[in-house]
Amino acid sequence: MSEGTQNDAERVEKLILLCGRFADEGRIDEMAACFTEDGELHVPGRIVKGREKLGRFFGYGRTEETPAHLTKHILTNFTCEFEGDSRASTVTYFQVLQGTGLSAWGRYIDNVVSHDGQWRIAKREVAVDGPTTS
To answer: What three-state secondary structure class fits 54?
Structure first.
């Protein structure tokens, strides 16, 4: 891996980690901004396309009284494979903890792109590997 590619891998990993942190902190606009304008989110049973729709999806059910701190994303085992200078595929294991305990676990399978030196998620597939609490 070249020095530039190592720096890009670190930037991509930071993007993935910040997306989880923004979710935990209820920073919905910043979470949506981790995606490209036409970014896609594939969750079981649903596909959401476009940053504006992603913001609404991420913010669904949140109010000023919603305690964002009760959700924690634990992200591990990050891997990144570059496809040229401006595209990469990543896999990150996740666990989502909520006030009642472990809510879900699985993998984020992301396609990321760089534009003007900024990495963004173009497509995220959420592969849930374990049961979720109801």
So the answer is: helix
What six digits make up the tokens of 10?
């670190």
- Tokens representing 116 are 């003007």
Question: DSSP state, 21?
Answer: H
- Nearest 5°: phi and psi at 78? -65, 130
Query: What is the reported pTM?
Result: 0.88
* Dihedral sign, Cα of residue 34, residue 37, residue 42, residue 45: positive
Distance separating alpha carbons of residues 98 and 39, to the nearest angstrom: 26
76-89 b/e (C-beta count within 10 Å ≥ 16 → b): eebebebeeeeebe
- Side chain identity, residue 29: D
Residues 103-115: pLDDT tens digits?
899 999 999 999 8
Spell out the domains of the chain, with CATH numbers in brackets: 3-128 (3.10.450.50)
pLDDT of residue 9: 94
Alpha helices by DSSP H, 60-114: none
